[in-house]
Design a protein that fits this description.
The structure holds 2 protein chains of 2 kinds.
Chain A lengths: L5 H5 L15 E7 L5 E7 L1 H5 L3 E6 L7 E2 L6 E2 L5 E2 L5 E7 L2 H10 L1 E6 L6 H4 L26 E9 L2 H7 L2 E9 L11 E6 L5 E5 L4 H12 L6 E5 L15 H11 L3 E4 L2 H7 L5 E10 L5 E13 L5 H11 L8 E10 L13 H19 L3 H8 L18 H12 L10 E12 L2 E9 L5 E5 L8 H13 L6 E3 L18 H28 L6 E4 L2 E4 L7 E2 H10 L5 E9 L9 E2 L8 E14 L4 E12 L6 H20 L5 E2 L2 E2 L17 E7 L21 H13 L10 H6 L4 H4 L2
Parallel strand pairs in A: 1-14, 12-13, 16-17, 20-21, 28-31
Antiparallel strand pairs in A: 1-7, 2-6, 2-8, 3-7, 4-5, 9-17, 9-26, 10-15, 11-12, 11-14, 15-16, 18-27, 19-20, 19-25, 22-23, 23-24, 27-28, 29-30
Helix pairs in contact in A: 9-10, 10-17, 13-14, 14-15, 16-17
Chain B lengths: L3 E7 L2 E7 L5 H8 L18 E4 L2 E4 L12 E3 L1 H4 L7 H8 L9 H14 L5 H7 L11 H9 L3
Parallel strand pairs in B: 1-5
Antiparallel strand pairs in B: 1-2, 3-4, 3-5
The chains are: A alpha+beta, B alpha+beta.
């Protein structure tokens, strides 16, 4: 089933935020800090304001004194008293053209008093480190957080007794892993266009994953009631977590309010790399106790996430990381301490499989270290410890629909696992992962028109993953009408019902359930209306192929169009189905969990992967020959789109493993462009073989669950393990560059393998 | 700087324009002619989202000054289905699931068209080489490769 928006996208008709224009529109630009940590003594905008073509310059003085933040209210829209990272917005300008706006930025004079900065999260955690947020403890947070010094969030999980576990262990393994900042690199940079009418009502067109979050964050930061803000989602040119919260939207609104003209801001790629929030760099220390037979009995983990100048979603990232730091394994004794730490570096954000990509690299690498030491097969070691239905998650939630073993076995079988490759310097590595679908609210309307066609009205954006298509499929299936009869709305917060957002693998599961209920509601109404026309009991009627008829008597039916037309004009009223879904967070073990933002999830997803590589010992280059990825996603509503999601996640994971690293030097991003920051191109991605496994998930719509995230967490450990298998070296620091492989001193023995 | 005159053909239609010498072809197409099917992703010729055909060759329009296109023939994504039916590559991209967010798609399809016009029977390796200048962050390229290979006559 091809996607509903394919034709518009293939022909260039689809309109994205950078394509938007309105008559009399102005262009906005953002002035950002050039210091990593400094007090702002004065900002003089007078010269900029006098430049011909400049219509407005705004600094913190012109904005409400509000601190915002998805998790911790620690961030002003524009720096007020001090700057905390290079790239922090200080002032915004609206002008008749982009060039004039750019020129105006150069005329703004900022006086700073430089403060001692800190760039290393471990240094920042020390008591004598310069304090980045003096008022941290007074900030508002949305969950009971633990915070002190430069630690904006400390998440703790504890079950059993790790020390006792270590005493009973046959062997104890202690390893330290480090991971880098990775940028989402959606090809479309952030862009928004805002206009304000004379009654003060704001309309914003924007590229976003969560238009209702954008609306509420605009309301919060600009002190405008929600009903006076209308956020309209354009096509979104990729998100991967990076378009969840406000970015340029509030600046467009502020400038539009001041100038009474529409204002558009489009970030350049360089700004995208320096202003917007990449994946957190991390330090992961694991201590794992294992019995002689390979049973893991104890795991202690220390996770440090470097969040940069502001918390952003960092505490949530650390929370998710803390849950999955033990891997998808049944371990009786665990102790996890996850720290989200401020530094004077660029602000980090949400990115696909947040927090877990980091821990999974560490945990799955250590699994192979353990297997090698004990002389076990890495697959067998995983299967021995793998979670199953009824096991507890680290936070004490009972797991169901666990397709981990099925994923491991499928990936292994398809890769020819166990057969040693004969070729020199080649190896295979395996990895697996557990992730979760976020819950929270989704709501949907299904309208049956007079002619029997259907409008699906939803507040969830299709950011490319194909949700509009699979949700239309669900309506078609539930209502008994052809897929082509369904038209899916774009998101407009004034019109479409509420949805939490296209985040955390939640749309298929949550919005799918809401959409299914809305369609079922329509069906009931249609059957009721038709019952008088057919002189039958509604319970005896069904819909198939656009016809409402008594069960078993399809030849004596009445078309949906006729019933709906009658409803609209003669009797009963128009048919509008409503569906709301809110997955209550499942129970968990509250006494073992502290400071955790997302301690339980409605449903979990599982996946496993095998990578096959060839290492060139002469120069350290690694060639990825093959990736086999098996995913438990319950039931695939649209297998082609599901495969596409996984293939994309795997490619992003290959980038994370091999080439992608946002390089920072004293707070400066030194590679903010696509020539120095290398995402995979078509030559870097090998054949990816995708297999969909698992059984229909209970509570999932038609048995489906989410799938966009886990694929990205598998390549780094699978490739690292394959390199070890090929040439006997263990890389514990991402990305795995040729230098690291070369200087890891491949032994002559291994060269000859 | 004073504007200079420029004559070129875009999607079969002749244009007589005046542009500032520093205007890039991408800016001309997107901002002045509102042909926004051509996308910009990086501004330095690394992502390929702005790919258009200049006298049949795939070029990155963010790296070419508009005046360099004087007297030339440009094809943008809007021109590919101008006569009504969509191009076989467009159909293949839709049918094979080679489109996700769609931001790279116009550039991808035009690069693929330039390749197939010159070499109607490329090997998989030749397709990979020809498409190496077009980045996609959504698909992992698997279905893009399949789509292009399916169009070989």
């Amino acid at each position: 089933m091809p996607r509903v928006d394919g034709l518009d996208k293939a022909t260039g008709r689809a309109v994205y935020s950078p394509d938007m224009e309105l008559p009399h529109m102005l262009h906005g630009k953002i002035l950002t800090s050039t210091y990593p940590h400094a007090r702002i003594l004065n900002i003089d905008v007078s010269k900029a304001e006098r430049l011909t073509g400049v219509k407005a310059v705004i600094t913190a003085r012109d904005t409400p004194d509000v601190a915002w933040g998805f998790m911790i209210k620690d961030q002003p829209l524009l720096a007020r008293d001090k700057v905390r990272y290079i790239g922090e917005p200080l002032a915004v300008v609206a002008a008749s053209g982009k060039d004039v706006a750019e020129e105006a930025l150069d005329l703004i004079e900022v006086e700073y008093e430089e403060l001692k900065a800190t760039f290393d999260p471990e240094e920042a955690m020390k008591p004598d480190a310069p304090l980045i947020h003096e008022g941290l403890e007074a900030y508002t947070t949305f969950w009971p957080s633990i915070r002190y010094g430069n630690v904006c969030s400390h998440v703790k999980i504890s079950r059993g007794d790790v020390e006792k576990g270590f005493k009973e262990a046959f062997r104890i393994f202690e390893d330290r892993f480090t991971t880098q900042m990775q940028h989402q690199c959606y090809l479309e940079t952030h862009a928004s266009l805002a206009t304000v009418d004379l009654g003060g009502k704001v309309t914003v067109w924007t590229s976003s994953q969560a238009p209702f979050s954008i609306r509420s964050e605009l309301a919060e930061t600009l002190r405008i009631p929600l009903n006076k803000i209308r956020v309209i989602a354009t096509q979104t040119g990729g998100g991967f977590g990076g378009k969840t919260d406000i970015s340029v939207e509030p600046y467009c609104v502020l400038l539009a309010q001041k100038t009474n003209r529409p204002v558009k801001i489009t970030l350049s790629r360089k700004e995208e790399f320096t202003i917007s929030g990449p994946r957190h760099a991390s330090i992961i220390e694991l201590k794992t106790g294992v019995k002689r037979d390979g049973t893991i009995i104890s795991r202690q983990a220390k996770l440090i996430y470097d969040t940069g100048g502001y918390a952003g979603p960092g505490p949530g990232v650390a929370s998710l990381g803390s849950t999955y730091a033990v891997g998808p394994y049944r371990i009786p004794n665990i102790k996890v301490d996850a720290y989200c730490v401020y530094t004077n570096k660029t602000n980090c954000g949400w990115m696909r499989c947040p927090g877990v990509v980091q821990t999974n690299f560490a945990s799955e690498s250590q699994m192979d270290i353990i297997a090698k030491d004990l002389g076990k097969d890495p697959l067998d070691l995983r299967l021995r410890n793998a979670v199953e239905d009824g096991d507890l998650s680290p936070t004490g939630q009972v797991l169901h629909n666990v397709g981990l073993k099925a994923s491991l076995q499928k990936a292994a079988q398809q890769s020819g696992w166990g057969k040693k490759t004969k070729e020199k310097n080649r190896g295979k590595g395996i990895s697996c992962v557990q992730y979760e679908s976020l819950g929270m609210a989704s709501s949907a309307l299904v309208k049956v028109n007079e002619d029997g066609t259907i409008n699906l009205v939803i507040g969830a954006v299709d950011i490319g993953q194909g949700s509009s298509t699979i949700l239309a499929q669900m309506v078609a299936e539930e209502l008994g009408v052809p897929f082509e009869e369904i038209s899916v709305s774009t998101v407009d917060t004034e019109i479409t019902p509420f949805d939490t957002g296209t985040i955390g693998d939640r749309v298929t599961y949550n919005m799918g359930n809401a959409v299914r209920m809305a369609a079922a509601d329509c069906r009931q109404q249609l059957l009721y209306l038709a019952s008088s026309m057919l002189e039958a009991n509604p319970a005896d009627l069904k819909i198939s192929d656009k016809l409402i008829h008594a069960k078993g008597v399809p030849e004596k039916g009445v078309p949906i169009s006729e019933v709906s037309m009658a409803g609209h004009y003669f009797k009963g009223g128009p048919i509008t189905g409503r569906g709301v879904f809110f997955a209550e967070p499942p129970a968990y073990d509250q006494k073992g969990v502290e400071g955790h933002a997302f301690p339980s999830a409605p449903i979990h997803t599982f996946a496993a992967q095998v990578a096959e590589v060839e290492v060139n010992p002469k120069n350290g280059k690694v060639r990825i020959l093959r990736i086999i990825s098996a995913h438990d996603l319950g039931f695939a509503i649209n297998p082609m789109l599901a495969e596409g999601q996984i293939e994309g996640a795997v490619a992003m994971g290959i980038g994370y493993a091999m080439t992608e690293r946002l390089v920072e030097d004293k707070g400066n991003i030194v590679n903010p462009n696509f020539s120095d920051y290398k995402i995979p191109n078509i030559l870097d991605v090998p054949k990816i073989e995708v297999f969909l496994v698992g059984e229909k998930a209970k509570d999932g719509p038609f048995g489906a669950k989410g799938l966009g995230n886990p694929g990205v967490a598998l390549p780094a450990p699978a490739i690292a393990n394959a390199i070890e298998d090929a040439v006997g070296i263990r890389i514990k620091d991402l990305p795995i560059t040729p230098e690291k492989v070369f200087f890891a001193k491949i032994s002559p023995d291994e060269r000859g393998r | 700087m004073s504007k200079k005159s420029l004559q070129l053909t875009i999607n079969g239609e002749p244009y007589e324009l005046t542009v500032e010498p520093r205007t890039t072809l991408a800016e001309l197409l997107r901002e002045e002619l509102h042909l926004t099917g051509t996308k910009e992703g990086c501004g330095i010729g690394m992502c390929g989202a702005c790919t258009v055909l200049l006298d049949g060759k795939a070029i990155k329009s963010c790296l070419v000054l508009a005046l360099k296109a004087n007297g030339k023939e440009i094809t943008t994504i809007e021109g590919l289905a101008a006569k009504g039916d969509i191009h076989p590559l467009q159909k293949a991209f839709i049918d094979h699931g080679a489109i996700q967010c769609g931001y790279c798609t116009p550039g991808m399809i035009l690069s693929a068209k330039a390749l197939l016009d010159e070499n109607p029977h490329p090997t998989e390796e030749e397709v990979r080489m020809a498409m190496a200048g077009n980045l996609c962050r959504c698909t992992g390229y698997v279905k893009i490769l399949e789509a292009i290979l399916s169009v070989r006559p």
